[in-house]
Amino acid sequence: MLWLLLLVGVVLLAVLCLDVYATVFVPTGQPGPVAGRLYHLTWRLWHRRFGDGSARSRRQLAQLGPLLVPFTVLVWAALLWLGFTLVFLPWSPAESGFPGWFTALYVSGYSVTTLGTGDITPSGRWPRALMVLAAASGFVLISVAVTYLLSVYGALARMTALAFEIHRFVGRDDGLVPADVLVTVARADAASELSDWLASTASSLAEVVQADDEFPLLHYFHFPDERALPVALSDLLEVVTLCRTVLSPAAFPALTGGLVIAGTERIARSYFTALVRKFEGQPVDGERLMQERRAAFDTAWQTLSLAGVPLRAREEAWARYDWERRTWDEASARLRAGFGYPAFENGGPHPEAREGWSAFPRSR
After folding, report:
1. Counting CB atoms within 10 angstroms of each CB, which of 119, 137, 309, 336 has the fewest?
2. What single-letter DSSP state applies at residue 252?
3. How buried is 75 (Cβ within 10 angstroms: 0-12 exposed, 13-18 middle, 19+ buried)?
4. Does residue 345 contact residue 178 with C-beta atoms inside 8 Å?
5. 43 Cα distance to chain centroid
6. What is the DSSP string of 74-116?
7. pLDDT (tens digit, 9 = 90+) per residue, 267-278?
C-alpha cells in the first residue's frame, strides 16, 4: 500500500512539473492541466456569483485576477508538498509518538520550503537523495513563481498603460467620441501626427498581445474603469474603421489606405479574435448589433460632415464601414458583455440575450 502511495506521489510531482512547464515556460496562452482547470472553475464560480453586468459586478470581477496569482502559487506548493509526502511515506516510521504519515508530512514540508531544520535525519541513500531533490524542487518552484509573478505584473502594467493612453487620447472623460479625433485631425492638418500615434500604439499593442499569449493569468484581469483594454480597443478600432472607410482617400491617403492604419487594425482585431476563442463571451442580439452599427455610422457621419471634413460618398462610406465593422464588432461586443462591460455604446447587452449565456473560458 505504501509503495502504491509512493507511485501516486511520483505521478503528482510529474503532473506538477508539466503544469509549471506549460504555464510558465511555453508561450502559447494555454495554461497547464492543473492551472487551466483551476482558472476555468474559479472563473465559472466567480462569474456565476458576480457576473450580473452591473458596475458593482465589474468591480467584483476585477478582483479575480489578483486573487488567482497567489492562489496558483499556493496550489503548486501544495502539490509539491503532498507529492513528496507520499514519496517519503515508505521510509517514514513513527517518531516520538507521531505516526509515520505525519513524519513524512513534516520532513517533506521543511524540505520543500528549504527550512532544513534537520531534527529528523533520513537513513539510507534513497531517502537522503529524495530529501535533496525535495529541497532543490522547492527552491526552483519559489524562484520560478517569483519570476513568473513579476513578469505577469510587468505585462499587466503595459496593458493598463496602453488602455489608459487610448482612453485619454480619444477623450472619453471629456465626453468625446472617436469621430471627434478625426475632426481635430482635419482641422489641424494632423494626419501625420495620427499616423505616428497609431504606429506607436500598434507597437505597444503587439507587445500586449504577445504577453497575453505568454501569460494565461492576464486573461482574468478585468478593470472596471478606463484601464479596461477591451473597451479601449473598441474605441481604437472605431477610429481606424472611420479612417479607412469614411474619410476621403484624396484628402487623407495615408489614413484611408496606408500601411500603418491597416496594420493597427489587424493587430487590434487579433486581440478580440484570440480572446473570443478562449472565452465564449455573451451572445448579443444580431439585430441590436446592426442597429448599433448603423447608429454609430450616422453619428460619426453627422459629426464629420458638420465639421467640414472631406468624406466619401455616403452610400459608399456606409457599405465600407458596415463591412469592416462586421470583422470585429461582434467579437468585441461578446467579449465586453461577458466581462461585465457594456456591449453597446448606448447601453448594456440586450435583455433577451441574457438567457443561457456563458462567459466562461472554454475547457482546455
Report:
1. 119
2. -
3. middle
4. no
5. 12
6. HHHHHHHHHHHHHHHGGG---BTTB-HHHHHHHHHHHHHTT--
7. 888 888 777 777
Please report which helix (H) or strand (E) contains residue 34, including its range: helix 33-50
Cell of 24: 510558465
Residue 298's CB: how many other CB atoms inside 10 A?
12
CB 288 within 8 A of CB 294: no
Residues 224 and 239: their CA atoms lie apart, in Å, by: 22
Q: Is 279 helix (H, G, I), strand (E, B) or coil?
A: strand
Domain residue ranges in the chain = 1-147, 171-358
What pLDDT digit, counting tens, does each position of 45-54 carry? 887 887 776 7
- Which runs of consecutive H residues, i.e. helices, occur in 215-285? 229-245, 253-257, 259-278
Global pTM reads 0.79
d(CA 153, CA 138): 23
Residue type, 68: L
Give the whole-angstrom CA distance, residue 231 versus residue 212.
16
Amino acid letter, 170? V
Residues 246 and 184: beta-carbon distance below 8 Å: no
